[in-house]
Fold:
Amino acid sequence: MATPHHLKLLTLLLLSILSPTLAEIKNTHIFSDARPMILFEQFGFLRGGRLSVSISNVHWSPAFAATSTSNFNTSLSGFFLIPNAFYPLIINESDYTPHFCPLSSHYTIHVLTFSDLTTNRSCERALSIDMPDEYSLLFGNCQPMFDVTMDVRTELYNVDAGGGKDYLPLGRRPVPKLYFGFFLVYLLFFLVWVWVCCKQRNTLEKIHLVMGGLLLFKALKLVCAAEDLWHVKRTGSPHGWDVAFYIFGFFKGILLFTVIVLIGTGWSFLKPYLQEREKKILMIVIPMQVIENIAAVVIGETGPAEPDFLTWNQIFLTVDIICCAAVFFPIIWSIKNLREASKTDGKAARNLEKLTLFKQFYVVVVSYLYFTRIFLSAFVAMLSYKYRAVTPPRKRSKPGFYLFVFYNFQPVEKNPYLYIGEEEEAAARGALEMEDSFEL
Structure:
């Protein structure tokens, strides 16, 4: 039987999913699986939305040698829907019901059980949704002493005004347009950056070319995301746009952290080389980004029904946190080096400008990374399914970060890294002395 412990674990799983599930038409193979509950989909339905579940090649076998197949009860294994609003009620019911099975709960919607199987071990059921809500489609096996093997095809969609199928959940329907809008923003940003680099080619550094590559891959990733969702919305399949999305996302992720690390080290601005410890940071961040992108592909392509889905989520989050922590070290080292240099090289004003800029860069990087990864994730988890289109607040916060970085580190003749007027030296020395007096 499904225990309250399993139900609570499932609730945590639902909260741990990084992004709302897209209801692509999915085919999933379950092999010798004894899990008491398997989450297949989460979907925000409108009234009149449709659900179709088809299973074939269904088999069960004893998980333990002492168990006989004749003891298998076909009515205790099957698919059901749970409106998200009913989760607290179901958990409460499971706490007070001996040998609780979610298939018999008053708060679940029956889809099919193995009792409905035909002679060729297959079954197909379709439901119409009467009550708008976000629903979870689950398979329940209330006989954990048996392993289950089956092929599952799921199709969830809303019906639009013209009677066509819309495979995006309610809260995600505006997202393709939002992504395309952000693509235009970043494309314009990239063209402006190219114009600035061409205009200031005499002060152009290698880092500026890397920054331009970051903008290009960011724009390409967004347009692929928009096309991916548009195809899913109309047909239930991304038609290959997901592959392009992952490829451009891979390069964008590597370039983002590389740019932060290189700017943090002062490479190409303050010095033409990287120190050994700074190279080690890049050698940590780049492989970590490869692992993170592999985890993102697995998460996006397999879905929560896979046994290792939660593990890959944990890998993604852990690697992301490691990368975020690693990029802080070069910035801290540069701040420390500038403070020490200000006491010895007689260029107080120049070092004060650099020090101020690095401190601002550090604050912005910390705010950006923690805002997009912690605050927004918690915020979106609390939102109603109807307003999931605001998950791109993570996307909306990024242009501000990019604008700060690209504006402050653009190729200009009198960059605070490279130029300072002599008349500002005396005031800067006093500011640095005062800062040192307050340092612990």
Summary: DSSP finds eleven helices and nine strands in the chain. Strands lie at 26-33, 37-45, 50-62, 77-83, 109-113, 123-128, 133-141, 146-159, 165-166.
